[in-house]
Amino acid sequence: MDPNAIIESYVGDVVGRIPRRQRADVGFELRSLLREELAGRAEVAGRPADEPMVMELLAAFGRPQDVADRYRPAGFTVIRPADAPGFAWFALGGVALQWAVTLPIAYADPGVAEWAESAGVAGAWWAPLPAWWLSGGLGAFWWPGFMITLTLIAAMIRHRRDRVETASESLPQAEPRMAPRIPPQVLDRDRVNRAGLVLAMSFGALGASVLIALPWLAVIAPGLPQPVIDAFVFDPEFLAWRAPWFVVLWAMTFAGGFALLIAGRYTRTIRLTSIANDVAFLALVTWSLAAGPIFVSPAAEEVTRVCLIGIMLVFVFDIVIHVRRLTPTRAPVLSN
Amino acid sequence: MVESRPEQSGKLEQDLRKGVLVLAVLSQLRTPQYGYSLRQALAERGMPIEEGTLYPLLRRLEGQGLLASEWRIDDGPPRRYYTLSPAGAETYRDLTTAWGSLTSVVAALLHEES
């Protein structure tokens, strides 16, 4: 085969992968350089250029996609190496968690059982799997996609910020260069952002006040339509036995929040108290879900149960974070 | 898998060379050169660079404003000649100074070790 035809095909492959505005220029130059290189090799070999010679040259030059990468300006990192293991655990853990929830539901779903019967596979252990895979199974992959989208947006913002900082650092400076401004919470992970904590406590207090006020909704807001008031009526048994414990734990959470606000950073005691509080909340929510209805209205009850399961996951996540930060780093084995 | 010692040394030497690649290229572009002639010139002076690395590097340096280029037709096919731009000449001087101090520091470190 004509060596020039092979070079032509290679150049076409490379330039097809680089920005359109560079294609003509890079293509023209690359073609010319490859021909020069080939002529040089032919001269050294003492024979005319042939197919094996051009293939050897192109192999040394690299795969077209690698060469195109080298012509592109350096990109930016979407997931930093240090974040990659955590990202993978969080992404795959989210998928596994959804499967753990949706798979038993699929096995218990009467609609799936009806389908299995109509398909003549009733009783087969795998009968619910096709329906599950096409709904909850594949559907669980929204989570890694959602995480990737958020990470991409965060990486783009970070890249933009870094470019601005680099540009400002390259300006001539009369004073000696100051250390880059990094938020103290980034350097000291136990430190809290007081403004953020006050905001979070304010929202928490607001939410707790709304829930505590629900039994008196008709008195506080008499103008509300009756269906709205009916929708938020607590189950009397919940109100008598379980609800007071929520108030106690909320009060303890706020006390912990104030202690953290005063200290300005997490101490071992505050972390241990937070873990105890989280465990108590987990036990209370589990008891509330198991002991009977929370709201009288079935619709409100259903939504509340889903929300409480989500809240339990947040507590578990919080416990894991606290335990990890309390665990001291293992000392290396020291030789004598 | 743990790499063999020669493999490891080869990679580390490659990294070492990568660090001085830009300075080596800039040093040869005080006079205009086209890609192939530049590669030959570097190889003759003991600094062989893979063609797949050198040519994109020239474009990047040009994109950074360190090189200027023009197409010329002498006694052969059209060729793109690269040379240092004014900013490139300044950068070359800075890098040469930095290289001088770096080599003396590293030489002192190595001497201390031996």
List the helices and strands and how they pair.
The complex is a heterodimer of chains A (336) and B (114).
Chain A: H1 3-15, H2 20-45, H3 51-61, H4 64-71, H5 84-108, H6 110-118, H7 128-139, H8 142-169, H9 184-187, H10 194-213, H11 217-220, H12 226-231, H13 236-263, H14 268-291, H15 298-326
Chain B: H1 5-28, E1 33-34, H2 35-44, H3 51-63, E2 67-72, E3 79-84, H4 86-113
Keywords:
heterodimer; A: 336 residues; mainly alpha; 15 helices; B: 114 residues; 3 strands
Radius of gyration of chain A: 32 Å
The most extensive interface, with participating residues per chain, is: A-B, 18 and 18 residues
Query: What portion of the residues of chain A fall into strands of 2 or more residues?
Result: under 5%
Distance between the termini of chain B: 32 Å
Tell me, rounded to a whole number, the average pLDDT of chain B.
89
Shape of chain A: elongated
- Would you tell me the structural class of the helices and strands of chain A? mainly alpha
* Rg over C-alpha atoms of chain B, rounded to the nearest angstrom: 17 Å
Q: Strand content of the residues of chain B, in percent?
A: 5-15%
Assembly type of the shown chains? heterodimer
| Sheet having the most strands of chain B | 3 strands, antiparallel
Cross-sheet strand order for the largest sheet of chain B: 1-3-2
Number of helix segments of chain B? 4
Mean pLDDT of chain A: 88
Number of helices of chain A: 15
Major β-sheet annotation of chain A: none
Number of beta-strand segments of chain B:
3
| Beta-strand segment tally of chain A | 0
**Cα shape of chain B:** globular
Question: Would you list the SSEs of chain B in sequence order as H and E?
Answer: HEHHEEH
Helicity level of chain B = 55-70%
Please, could you describe this protein's structure?
- The complex is a heterodimer of chains A (336) and B (114).
- Chain A is 74% helix and 0% strand.
- With 336 residues, chain A is mainly α.
- The model of chain A has no long low-confidence stretch (mean pLDDT 88).
- In chain A, helix 1 runs antiparallel to helix 2 (20-45) and helix 13 (236-263) runs antiparallel to helix 14.
- Chain A starts with a helix and ends in a 10-residue tail after the last helix.
- Chain A has helices at residues 3-15, 20-45, 51-61, 64-71, 84-108, 110-118, 128-139, 142-169, 184-187, 194-213, 217-220, 226-231, 236-263, 268-291, 298-326.
- Chain B is of the alpha+beta class.
- Chain B contains four helices and three strands, in the order H-E-H-H-E-E-H.
- Chain B has helices at 5-28, 35-44, 51-63, 86-113; strands at residues 33-34, 67-72, 79-84.
- In chain B, strand 2 (67-72) and strand 3 form a beta hairpin.
- The A-B interface holds A 26, 28-30, 32-33, 35-37, 40, 60-62, 66-67, 70-71, 73 and B 34-36, 40, 50-53, 55-57, 59-60, 63, 77-80.
